Amino acid sequence: MDHAPAAKEHIANATLGQAAGYAVVLGLGGAFAIGMIATTFILKRYNRELQTSEMFNTAGRTVKSGLVAAAVVSSWTWAATLLQSTGVCYRYGVSGPFWYASGATVQIILFATLAIELKRRAPNAHTYLEVIKARYGTVAHLVFMVFGVITNILVSLMLIVGGSATLNALTGMHTIAAIYLLPLGVIAYTMVGGLKATILTDWAHTFILLLIIIIFALTAYASHDLLGSPSAVYDLLVAAATRHPVDGNKDGSFLTMQSREGAIFFVINIVGNFGTVFLDNGYYNKAIAASPVHALPGYIIGGICWFAIPWLTATTMGLAGLALENNPRFPTYPDRMLDSDVSAGLVLPYAAVALLGRGGAMATLLIVFMAVTSAFSSQLIAVSTICTYDLYRAYFNPEASGKRLIYTSHCVVMGYGLFISTFSVGLWYAGISMGYLYVMMGVIISSAVLPATLALLWSGQNKWAAAGAPVLGLATSLTAWLVTSKKQCGELTVKCTGSNIPMLAGNVAALLSPIVFIAVLTAIFGIDKYDWKSMLEIRRGDDHDLAQEAGVDLEEVNGGHEETQAEFEAEQAKLLKAGKISRWTTVVLALAFLILWPMPMYGSGYIFSKPFFTGWVMIGIIWIFGSFIGVGLFPVYESRATLSRTFKYIFKDLTGKSHIKTIHAQEAAVAGTPGDQTPPEKAGIKEEVRSS
């Protein structure tokens, strides 16, 4: 596929110059890398954090709910979250943003239950694949490892392919240069700081992202000269539907939830996103990193706050694109956008340019960069933990030291970053877009969702059902997808296989066919009677060599404390209570997002009135401010004591009023414990975590 003409056209018409693209990718990326490396040094010097294998891969298992929520939001905010949601709004109108947001929020909320069960059943696990191996053995472990790594690869490809396409469209920066340069800064700070650096960067990126979304919304609905109010946008959408009505929407309107193609996308979206949450080790990493009492609120807050990001972003920028595309300010005027450009995720940057000119282009560049880099950092850690603990330690070096485990993690981070960039170049030459990958991922991975979930929730699933159902489900989904494509189009092309009906068939077959296979294999081989004990035998990494080298007691290092029986029992009691709460909470919220809110409007075919549309927009704006409080400000408030103490230590150290060793000695004296004993705050469940 010849990309040269398109590339030249983008360079000629780019709102920002190539210098802006390189400045953001290298300058801002480098600044974040330096900032996170400096933060890691500060945590080590003033909070006595040692970069052990446990700290690198689990953040010491002490992260509070605010940072967990911010990390969940950041990990789930891909380039596709912003670009694809805006594209479906451009195609289907107001239903698109809601179908995208609700179809991807329920997985995070439902995952809260799985996160609690993981921490309760396997408190020392580093990945969910360790749980599979402990319960089912090698065969099932290898099967799920393949599905898990494929999930991470697909997500990573979507991030880099979507981000590089946007960089090219806005700045004219060569796509291949963007593909290789985007991951550089991420790799640097991930290697130095591990999961803790990833989570802190997640918060910083989410903070900036939410501010820019708020600016977009207030500009479009409050201050823009052509738009400036929901009423003005409403009138322009009515006119747009008159010029080009939407096939399958009620009366061709952009202002209705009753959209045939939108509903099909909704189903595809739900199925695919179950796979990319329940099989992505990155989300289990966040659950493992969370302090036991903070896992449930972290995931619930994160899911609710995340909903507003695609919903309001697309409701603002997708509708702004529809409203302004008949205006000379729109980049494609007087033509509509090509379907290939919509699939590539270019509605958001084009609408931003029409709305705010160069400022809009720069804001889009920033939010896409934030989304790509923060989510890609999560993927790096997810893959490194799998390769380190499920491959290297499980099959090659079971007695690996902490130093060796960290070295392996570093090698994987570098190697995986290079692999994804090279793979992305191949997809670019093949003409495979982010949109195609997004709707196709469920076909490939979702057959493993149900078996993986039952591994933690049902003692009766036997090893044959666990290992066999994903493979049989994949064969079924691929058959359904390709046969439907062939029957509908008569040929297998990228355009045909990426259309809604074949993708719907493949995605639904992937998620639902394992129900049959699990039932059949359970009937054949019998119901298992698993006692959950082998999961408790999963070992943490042995970091005594690193602690000895640093001259510290491992008991005083985050992630190094050996839990007593009393602590374990208290933690289990709290997790059991949280598990009961999570089941009811997640079911109620899922029903609200999937049925109680949207379905009455879909079934009635209601076309929004102007007052209703105004209220719809106002709810979105209020919600995004709530999200900003929940994952932008709350983590700072929650960690105010730690932040205050750290800044005080830095001030004393820099002004020479007290040496850091003296500070730590005074702190130990106040605690009343010698350096070789566990401080009293270790006893029981910790309500305040020093490292967060």
Automatic annotation (TrEMBL):
InterPro entries in alphabetical order: DUR (IPR031155), Na/Glc_symporter_sf (IPR038377), Na/solute_symporter (IPR001734)
GO terms of molecular function: putrescine transmembrane transporter activity; spermidine transmembrane transporter activity; urea transmembrane transporter activity
Record-stated family: Belongs to the sodium:solute symporter (SSF) (TC 2.A.21) family.
PROSITE patterns: NA_SOLUT_SYMP_3
Region Disordered, residue ranges: 670-692
Chain intervals with Basic and acidic residues compositional bias: 683-692
Record organism: Apiosordaria backusii
Official protein name in the record: Sodium:solute symporter family-domain-containing protein
Gene Ontology annotations for the cellular component aspect, listed alphabetically: plasma membrane
Alphabetized UniProt keyword annotations: Membrane, Transmembrane, Transmembrane helix, Transport
UniProt main location, coarse: membrane
Gene3D superfamilies linked: Sodium/glucose cotransporter
